[in-house]
Design brief:
- The chain is built from 21 helices and no strands.
- It has about 475 residues and is mainly α.
- The protein has a single domain, classed as MFS general substrate transporter like domains (Growth Hormone, Chain: A), CATH 1.20.1250.
Length: about 475
Amino acid sequence: MQTLSVAATDKPLERQPIFWFYGCASMAYGIKDNAFSYLLLIFANQVLHVPGYLASIALAIAMLWDAVSDLLLGHWSDKTSSRYGRRHPFMYAALLVLPACFYALFNPVIDITPDNAFGYVLVMALLIRTGTTLFEIPSTSLLPDLEKDYDRRNKWLALRHAFGWYGGNGIHTINFFFWVGAYGVTVGTGYAIYGKVGALVIAAAIITSALGTQKAAAALPRPTEVLRWSEISREIRQILQSLRNRHFAALFGFGLAVGIATGLGTALYLYNTTYFFGFSGAQIATTGMCVLLSPWIAYFLGPHVGRLFGKKKAAIVAFSGRLVLYPMPYLLLLSGYWPEIGSWASLAIYSVFIVLEVVGAIIGGVMLDSMMADVVEDSELATKRRSEGLFFAARAFAAKAVSAGGIIGAGTIVSLVGLDSITSAAQMTHTIRVDIASIFLPAYISLFSTALLIVSRYGIDRDKHVANLRALHQTMDTPLEEKIGSA
């Protein structure tokens, strides 16, 4: 399929409206992801009174469904032929599902009882994750068509990650200043306000990004073949053929290991900040304000680091730095080298660690997404098909499928160490803190270390990418300079 770089122009990216329309889309995902990663387990557990292990099972089931549906929808969007482009029919469909269900999750539309609480959380989680798949996978998959240059792809994704963090962490910060933080994590009122505002911002992000990228998407060439539901076995063979790419396998393996670690860490985040470190809602919000620095730093730093070291080395260095920093606050507190629990001095030190960790996480994430974009052309040489939707969906599949295991692990830890009955930091004991850290930290560090070893096997660098574009040029009419930009 012939493609050209929509952004193949001398005009700086910041002066191209489509650059901002593509980037702002991730606000919807950032808000949803923040809610599911940090709020939903504790909301279901302490507001709807679903036991920790049952709440985590509901979230894990929804995540497994999401992981499977991602693959099918990614492949489907690769083969969709419409006057709106390959991706946009799915993006518009998301508007009918995601905002309304996000609202309904935190503002239950039925009377919640002990008998139906688990089912309600499960159904809402399934619908929200389906709506997210409809928007996020097709939206992200626009990049390989919009930008061909090896290094400039980093900048597009740096902006997208920044919007995602500002959307998710921005509403998180406001939430803990004025809503959940003000009313308390065990009171539903704050969550209800959060759900209403979050739904409105999600809807605005979907509308703005979909309409803003519509013209460019509609101008792209249509796929050479469409999805044939009557020949589903053939479609599955094509999916498997694309996924055999060895460079993709390295990114997929990374996602498997990190998915569990991330699910474990994010699901325990509010338990750890509220009970382990003893922070109030206002203090958690203050940390959120500090973290607003991280996307800005990563936006400017990330593309330069990627250009200097190459994407793979930059990702490994960024994630390694984060891995070193992550356990330090826990170990310092348990060993006695930490300010008074719950104090503002404690918060200041904790916030420094978090800001640096998030910078590393964003830079690493930008590099990995950009590496995945480069797999598209590498695979196209072998399969004669562009499968960007499938590849981005499959990477998400890896993270989501096993992140479900991390969430179940987090819920199990909550029940195992006795957090189900804890409602204030004053009830925490040193023994409970030791139990949390001794189970959580070794698992997290081991999984992340394994992931870094796996991703080191990725092999597409700048020269390989340019060589792939040149090889594709031999069978296409697109001017070579439009395909490789300034690479």
